[in-house]
Amino acid sequence: MNLDTFEALVNGRCIMYAKPKNLLSEERIVPLLVAIHDWSVTKNSWHNPALVKTFFLPGLKQEDDFKKKLGLIADEQRHHPFYYSHLLNDHTAKLSVYWTTDSLGGITRNDFIMAAKTNQLFTKHFSV
User: Which CATH architecture group holds 24-125?
Assistant: First the structure.
């Protein structure tokens, strides 16, 4: 079974990582980025590598609903995102979601699992 597919990631479960050896190398990150469509690697405010994707929602209520639903998934998986939000106008909220494993200072498989779950949530409940 190929573990680098969207389906494998979205059905995956986050696990607790305690060792830096669980950080993903660039060679492992590249094929996983293909699976989670439109996410990229950046640095978060602590200068750790992070996955990021920006979502556009039709207003602050929908943004809040999205964050609440994503928060429930994050609680279940025990892996939580960072957000940056900005109201573009009266009808559009811009929300950037960041996934990183701060305890290890970089990106693990958990971040890809949660990025896939974020995509699924957005597509199922919020895409136009």
Answer: 2-Layer Sandwich (3.30)
